[in-house]
Amino acid sequence: MDPTDLAFAGAAEQARLLAAGTVTAPALLDLYLDRIARLDPQLRAYRVVLADSARREAAAAQARLDAGERSPLLGVPIAIKDDVDVAGEVTTYGTDAYGPVKADDAEVVRRLRAAGAVIVGKTNVPEMMLWSFTETLTFGATRNPWDTNRTPGGSSGGSGAAVAAGLAPMALGSDGMGSIRIPSTWCGLFGIKPQRDRVPLAPHDGAWNGLSVNGPLARTVEDAALFLDVTSTTPAPEGSFVAAAARAPGRLRIALSTKVPPTLTARVGRAQRAAVDDAGKLLRDLGHQVVTRDPDYPVGAVYGQLMPRYFRGAYDDVQTLPRKERLEKRTRAFARIGGLISDHRMVAIRRAETELAQRVLSIFDDVDVLITPGTASGPSRIGAYQRRGAVATLALVAQRVPFQAMFNATGQPAAVVPWGLDEDGLPTSIQIVGRPFDEATLLSLAAQIEKARPWAQRRPPES
Length: 463
Prior knowledge:
This protein has 17 helices and 13 strands.
């Protein structure tokens, strides 16, 4: 296989090639290390590349393969977002205020290793994972492989850039306000925010007051399903997530909506609206019942639920750092706001989540899946938010990404499916949202769309 084709083959296909002996684990790792050395000085997808330990892991994986052992990800390189602990490394959270080297892997990393994955490096994030762009004073700007003058998104921006540029076949991300789905959209990837508590967060359980989850940024639906199979804390549907992705979804009832949740203000771009319209046409052609219907978004949800949990989550995270004085001024201001939200107030907010979820989920009394735009517009230019304060930055970025955070508050699964390119040649997506614990339907539908209009062959111009 051509080396570039192999780099973009995706985790599931690479696992098959490794098991068949078509490629060896050390050779596959070296392919990525060579690409990282060539492309990452400009992209800055990785905060650190773990070349030495990855080579040891790849050699051990190959010995296991040669002995006839088979595991789902045996020998496949995986990138880890730098808010997740890897034993022997620091977890920086995108800041110079970070603490000591971690003694143990996070549980999700332990599960990936148990499945045979080779940990190739840790990917860049915005400071304290706060933003939908990945730029810090400490580690610089991570750039979008589709246009290096633009951000790949955030906060899993390094993970998105790495997979999009063929610097990893799949990457771990986290999503507290859209942080998997935003970079997946702007980097042309399939990304899924699983059901809350589906993928372990330990040792950071309850991160951002229940908003945050771990999940994959991947080239294909099968890759993401494989990730869920090896990391899920709860039983998979009817055998496995990979099996669910391979099944036809049947005739679904699907709602289309471009409504921006109140009280956010955003102008949904022409390419983003067209993606939803085109998806509706395709899904009708595939036999689904498609209607236009908006969820019942409570007017007070953004400022009564989302923002307090977000701000207080940042405050709580900052309290764990040993050198808080090294945080950027904007981050310190963000955390100060979070510190104004009392424990008593947070208890009341979490109790009110049930009512919020009931209202948002009421649309699923009549439909199986909700579709929205992935984002309202394309990615910002590098440096667009320099010298802006916390509140001003938040107001500006929210205009681009209004469709994600509501489903962090409800906890239900949501994914983004790559669609086309906008007028600037940058990727767009649609977001598909399912009932609680129903990743299976989302994977099945996304795989059907992937078969009807494949995206995995699309690559950034300098790949």
